[in-house]
Design brief:
By secondary structure, the chain is mostly helical. The protein is built from ten helices and two strands.
Length: 256
Amino acid sequence: MVVGFLAGLLGIGGGMLMVPVLTWQFTQRAVPSGLAVKMAIATSMATILFTSLSSVRAHHRLGAVRWPIVHAMAPGILIGGLAGGAGMFSLLKGQGLALLFATFISYSALQMLLDRKPRPGRDMPGAWGQTGVGAGIGFISALLGAGGAFLSVPFMTWCNVPPRTAVGTSAAIGFPIALASTLGYVASGWLLPSALPGAVGYLYLPALGIVALASVTLAPWGARTAQRINVGALKRIFAMLLFILAASMLHSAFTA
């Protein structure tokens, strides 16, 4: 519920909160720390399959989705997501993924504190260029359990796509990112022994169902609240929380 509300309120990806919290919960249930990080990332990404659908529907109604960009990026996203989720994800140690994720959320927190936005510098590349960019976004997102907006929104804004359209289009490409990554996680973890009852490879299905249902329900409330209050101060507070979560995740992954 907290993840969904904050996602709607602040426009942040739920993975920044879910991955550290799920990692901590899994380690408390005697899951080895390295595997706990991978299960948290995979489960977090799988929830985006559900949350992205409700988000993109709202953005589409507002005319904020540039579908030609989605269609051009989607093939690369699918390839990159599968390569990251089915290949590199299984090869990297959990501690290495924890370091990557902590770096990612620390960078996101710093961007929130500084409130820096990229200046438009050029136009969107051609179809093949967008496919290549999509492959990179899909690959990195699969390793981090993130929806890709932290990369795609700055890129599109830099390419003179209006910010509101960049956010809506990023919401639309979140689904193929989540789909390819989740299929990769299932394939790479298929032969693993179940770490917990209800786990399928790296996915923990009970958490997936509960988090997806609660976050989808609360996200619209957060979005409506954002229209009535100044979220600038809240973003700064949340940025500090992200720094704490990053440090906590590193500590649990490297010392458990």
